[in-house]
Specification:
The chain contains 3 helices and no strands. The protein has about 50 residues and is mainly α. It is globular. The N and C termini lie far apart (about 20 Å).
C-alpha cells in the first residue's frame, strides 16, 4: 500500500501518468484509485 500511495502522489504531481503506472503495476491499481478518491483527484483515473 505504501508504494501505491507513493505512485498516486507522483500521478497527482504530474510526474507519472495513471495509465502508465497501472499498465506496469496492475497490482497497485486498487490502492492508487483509493488514494486518488480520498484526495479528491479521481479526475486523474482513466478507465481503460
Amino acid at each position: 500500500m505504501v508504494i501505491a500511495i507513493f505512485m498516486a502522489g507522483r500521478i497527482i504531481d504530474g510526474k507519472n501518468e495513471y495509465t502508465d503506472v497501472v499498465t506496469k503495476r496492475p497490482d497497485l491499481k486498487d490502492g492508487i484509485d483509493a488514494y486518488l478518491f480520498e484526495k479528491g483527484r479521481d479526475d486523474l483515473i482513466v478507465v481503460q
